[in-house]
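Figure 2 data, in text form.
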Amino acid sequence: MPVIVRNADQNSSQVAPGCDVVALVTPDVIGNDQILLERVALAAGVTYEIALDPKMVGWVQALSGDGTLADAEITPNMVTYLPLGFSGSVVAGDNETVLLMARVPDAARFDPEIADMPGELRQVDWTREPVLESEHDARKRIYMATPSLAGTHAFKGEMISYPPGTAAPEHHHVGAEHFQYVISGRGTALLDGTGHVLEAGDLLYNYEHEPHAFINQSDEEFVFVEFFVPGPCETIWSPGANVCAWLPTGVDSAGRAPSREIGYHVHGQDDGL
């Protein structure tokens, strides 16, 4: 069964003065070590140490605030990919900084060529990535992590937005597990036909073979980030559902020419992205 981690039920632990951590995805929560996910809140100027073990990769996404990571800028526009065994310090800026901190243990399980992942920090400004639109409904999609961006097949990620009244076709995945973390708004996850309302700060974890879909019955946009471990997987559509295909819009999230072009493709067709 899918796991829902409610924002209202989450308990934080102060790991150092000014540094509070909420464990969102752990082996105790999901029953395996596919991925470890934390939300880290740092007071202004506070330092948070990242130390991955030699077989581990990960990524950092700022939800709010800003700062630096090993001299690289951290802002809500950026996703930072962490190479094998990375160690470094996040230093919060002048305001509270909130991060999603993800780790993938024993990453070679998911990418046999993980040793070829670039050894330096890599970042992407997702606001410069092309906005894609659904062929059959009003959803929008922006890639957050792909093989060409992150340099690995161990994980992939995207941001999905559902305008009011938008629904997506039911489907399930084979070959990967994945989570959705709600950034803003309110939507309903249909899990094997049963509706569960999700709000900002909630997390949904889906295992393989679990049918799911989303609908936005509210009057505001529903937005979540979605990450798969490993990245490659097969998407199976429920009988009668439209295949989820994505079309280029020719612009980024600010209406500018995007940093690259991504053509028409069906969800799960990750080659070249």
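Caption note: The chain has two domains: 9-109, 127-266.
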